[in-house]
Amino acid sequence: MNDSLFHVLLVAGTLAAVSPVLLVLGRLRGAEQRALAEASSARDRLHDALDGSNLAVFDWDTSGGNSIHLSPTWRAMLGYEPAETRCTAQELFSLVHPDDVKHVRDAAVAALKGITPRYDNIHRVRRADNTYIWIQSRGKITSRDSRGWALRFAGTNADISARVAAEERLKEREMQLRQLIDTMPAAIVVFGTDERVLFHNRAYLELTGLSAEAVNGRRMKEVSGEAMYAKIEPHVHAALEGRTARFEQQVMDPMGRTVDLEVVYMPLRDTNGRVTAAITVRFDITRLKDLDRMKDGFVAVASHELRTPLTSMRGSLGLLQGGVAGELSDEAQGLVTIAMQNCERLVRLVNDLLDLEKITSGHGAFRIALLEWPAVLRQAIESSRGFVESYGVRFDLEPPQELRVRGDEDRLVQVLANLLFNAAKFSPRGSVVTVSAKPLADSWVRTSVRDRGPGIPEHFRSRIFQRFAQADMGEDRRAEGSGLGLAISRDIVERLGGRIGFNAAPGGGTEFWFDLPGTTEKVTA
Amino acid sequence: MSTQHLKRILLVDDQRDIRSIVGLALGKIGGFQVKVCESGEEALANADAFAPDLLLLDLSMPVLDGVGTLKALRARGLAAPAIFFTARLKPEDVGRYRELGVLGVIPKPFDPLKLGAQLRELWEKRPQS
Questions:
Q1: Candidates 3.40.50.2300, 1.10.10.10, 1.20.120.450, 3.30.565.10; correct CATH number of B8-121?
Q2: What percent of chain A has pLDDT over 90?
Q3: What 8-state DSSP symbol labels residue B26?
Q4: H or E stretch including A383?
Q5: Fold that domain A3-166 belongs to in CATH
Q6: Taking the domain A369-519, which CATH number applies?
Q7: Nearest CA to CA, how far is B2 from chain A (Å)?
Q8: pLDDT at B75
């Protein structure tokens, strides 16, 4: 039975039960036929309604005989053939569940004595098959004598087993949910539009060290304290206005430990989308943060600890090569050169790894500025001149237009250096590497570095931006790079909101390019 | 002082290897007079007598680090310009070093054959008093 129907029937039943007029009608004798007919049809209608409603009417003549009359539905409710029942109060009470007898009796006595205006009781009664059903029994004293003694006690019994079972299931579900929410490793608190706490979980109490009494129903300001409330107030209001806020916070737990939290404030809406409350979830991210701090520490130590011995090796080899320990034989000179080149490769690898870590972890903040791009290109080419010479290639900067690019100068010079280094490395001696920049739509700028090399092998194209990806170019050339240059370049360009790629250049060679947002505005330094 | 050439360099580094490499690079190859100290304390004890034209200080040292050594030397009235030496250069620290009036920071690893020229170049750009 659905809830609304149930309510209608209850109201109908209760109306019938508490309407003495209807009951008195049945006892009218010698009344006019017309009135009798009307009454009779009213009673029929009532009985029909009651039959369809599963409500059993009881009518207890308390004046003399100890006799209770119950409508046919009562027997049906207990699992018998429906029939009128006439029984004593004792017989009726014998059906009540032993645990419920006392409070049924107390409630009935209170109604009979007029202590309570109505009788309304929920209890269990035994059915024919010895199982129990829950009934809601409602009624009132419909007439009293001049001394106030009850004469009639009438009302209805309704089988509410289904409702009780549903309520129990609901309670059980609620308990499971409650346990689930309590075992969640996140502190949760829900507050209404009046900023009073509607709900919280155990983790919230553990985090704050507050008792449930100090939280339930209290205002957020009271719960969090003046100082903390001043900090969270904008988020409380934002959530109640329908916005979500997410931030990190460091607090002291009741044991005095510093706890890193990720905090989320979110609105809760009803089915119409109206904000009715807000939820705050605090995740303990201390361990993640600790790991992060450990990693930072590791990076700092690694950078120092790896570079220190490399400094000594590089220095000693340099001095040997410089003839500090006397002129070297050709063989010795060759061996020292190998050792030194590998030493330098290790240094580059360490530097690149640290760079990559800094960029991907989001550390190493970018200093974004509007850059006069031709000047940056010239600077990058200038600082690459040293190694370019050793490869016997020439850089050609195509007369660049007035272009401005939004980005971090040092990082972009690093990207350019990587592209120039690769271009020089893979170009035939005596060839030209062309650097150019041109405007794209929406004031983006494409910067290209084009070599005259052999091109990128088909099988390598998809991996070229991966870390430690190196095309099989023979030992000599592989040894020169760390295999991280393009991975770093891609990370930098992407963190600046741009894109990077390459094409086979018409007429041979490869063109590497990256596009970055620029602007047509003048740079105002 | 402005017409003077860079001759006397006081090196402070806690690592023996670096001290010998830099000592050779600046002394035997660079032709400078080099006083090598293994700690800030030792530098403080020798600075006055040596009267350096330039201080070359390792940044990370136990007890008294590069910055601490420089401040202590300045407190004792030593005005010679300084250059830091480090294997852990953080871009965000450069501004702070500049505020201390250092001429520059040389990252490790360095090329021992070019170190002398690097120092001289930085030294020539020192503010003239």
A1: 3.40.50.2300
A2: 38
A3: I
A4: helix A373-391
A5: Beta-Lactamase (3.30.450)
A6: 3.30.565.10
A7: 30
A8: 94
